[in-house]
Amino acid sequence: MRNWFYDFSKWTLWIFFRFGHGLEVHGLQHVPKRGGFVLASNHVSYLDPPVVGVACPRRVAFMARTTLFAHPFLGAFLRGIHAIPLRRGEADHGAVSEAIARLRRGLGVAIFPEGTRQLSGRLGSAKRGVGLLAATAQVPIVPALVTGTFDALPPEAKRLHRAKIRVAFGPPIPYTTASVSSPGDHQQLADAVTQAWQRLDEERGRKHIP
Fold first, then answer.
1. Beta bridge partners of 109
2. How far apart are alpha carbons 83 and 3 in whole angstroms?
3. pLDDT value of residue 177
4. What is d(CA 67, CA 47) in angstroms, rounded to the nearest whole number?
5. How far is CA 121 from the centre of its chain?
6. What is the C-alpha separation between 45 and 162, in angstroms, rounded?
7. What per-residue string of b and e applies to 86-97 under the rule 16 or more CB within 10 Å gives b?
């Protein structure tokens, strides 16, 4: 089903990031053309969600903490793009169930499995919730590495800075070896996401991309 608000917002933000920050996207071939998938990105800046949404060729539903929905403008925007409210600091079974239902319907769900922004700007470690989603819905995980957003909008920044932004998608991580009921398997999938981020970062270094 089409969502004109999502499509219009994506087009507008693409123009902003492409011409304002030289947005480059690599590895689009790794995003499944159909079927559900979990998009798992690192998180270093408030810019990451819109950048990931713009870069991904398919529409994705973001899991966003409930407090963000309380802001009049931002809350309206999140509802317009059909984001999933998530209570942080507790097991939000309703949000997880909604995410799994969308994945099973063949939709994409985007999460930031480090749990919060990495204020150092360095890569963190994915938590096992990303593995739980993938194993339960039986969908692959597509790792995504975002760079440049930390320089464009670092913590406590009052305004945007000029900085090159890049997004790289890695090969999908299959859920097939994970058991729905095994936390250990969920963590193994999360560890595979962390390792995929590291490989994407190393590949960026080998190409001498700042």
1. 38, 61
2. 12
3. 63
4. 17
5. 16
6. 14
7. beeeeebeebbe
Tell me the three-class secondary structure of the chain, residue by residue: CCCHHHHHHHHHHHHHHHHHHCCEEECHHHCCCCCCEEEEECCCCCCHHHHHHHHCCCCEEEEEEHHHHHCHHHHHHHHHCCCEEECCCCCCHHHHHHHHHHHHCCCEEEECCCCCCCCCCCCCCCCCHHHHHHHHHCCCEEEEEEECHHHHCCCCCCCCCCCCCEEEECCCECCCCCCCCCHHHHHHHHHHHHHHHHHHHHHHHHCCCC
- Does the pTM of the predicted model rise above 0.85? yes
Structure tokens at 182: 């095994």
Helix 129-137 vs helix 93-104: crossing angle, to nearest 10? 40
pLDDT in tens, 51-105: 999 999 999 999 888 888 888 888 899 989 999 988 876 567 888 899 999 999 9
The answer to whether 62 touches 81, Cβ cutoff 8 Å, is: yes
Neighbours of 133 (CB within 10 A): 25
Reading the block at residue 128, the tokens are 């096992």
* 155: its two tokens: 């913590």
* 149 Cα distance to chain centroid: 13
| Token pair recorded at residue 147 | 């760079």
